Amino acid sequence: MNLFRNRNFNIFLTVQALSVAGDSFSALAIPLLVLHATGSVVQMGVLTGLSGAASLVTGVFAGYLADRLDRRTLLIACDLARAALYAAIPIVWISGPQIWLLYVIVPVGAALGMIFQVTYVTVVPSLVEPGQITQANGRLYAIYAAGGIGGPALVGVISQAYGPVVAIGLDAATFVVSALGLMLVRLRPAAAPQDRGGLLEGARFLWRQPVLRSLTILLTFFIFLTAGVDDIVIYHLKHDLSQNDDAVGLVLACAAVGTILGAPLIARIRKAIGFGHTWVSATTLSGLAMGGVGLATGVPVIAVLMALFVFGTAVAGICSQSFRQEITPSHLLGRVTAAFWTIHYVLGPAGAALLTLGAARFGVATVAVIAGAGCVLVSLSGLLTPIRRPLTPGNPAGR
Q: What is the pTM assigned to this prediction?
């Protein structure tokens, strides 16, 4: 069936675009809220680190939930719970800034987001045919990016006019809409679980598959170096360049263009040069762009560099996710996805905290160049692993 005629996939695509637009609201509005209330980039980094830690802990059981519970119901429950959480921020904020509340809500929201993301990955193969997975992921990423463009641009305007707390309230509403849309989606039945293992079962599958094993190790270091990139870009624009919230929203909106440009191309690029060379080229581009962000002094240049950074991560991410969905049995996909993300995010919280602490102490330029160079080294290391295997009929990594 053509994807354009796939009713369930198209509903899923539409409601998730709204949800991602809301995610982009909170991703920008919460750091702005902290910066407005405290003026501290370190606190921004601590919150990012706590979010990463919460996701890491949740990854231990998220895959088990996705493989054992009804996946559509789990997605709806996560959306409704996040709607309630983020709605609490503007309600409590009426009496004045309550930073402590963010240290409670943001990690819990990240934990629910982790469960949602793991389950979402398991749902895609139940919506489309096996040969359409890369194409479907490309369209999902592109639609998500379209929501991500409108989201940051709008939140910048709203934040400038009414304050970031109002934008967070709108985020809560998008989760409600997403949950209602998911109620209309019907999934193909998944295979019954054939084992009772948890995260370790997923980790064992990763270890036995050479390409996934190499990806997991390399991405662990890549995430460590890039987890705090949004925070240092916001800090660079606000602190170093004295820009307003509108400019911050514009830059992050332009960054999302990178995903829109990359998503439609990924299936063709992967078919032409293979999985390994696609992944290495894309992550190398991201590293070079990240290094350039710290040296840029103009908003347009930063916007272009962030678009290139996101283009690279989008191409690499779509390629990696599609390969994982293609080779993993359905009954195990939740645990494999959770193990993959949990392992390679393990250093993310520390990376975000160190990146923002370094930006406050040594300047954005220094830490961005060092982190960008590190990303390039990590990426090129992939050429020494099974990831680089050439495109051959017998090699599924090249599909």
A: 0.70
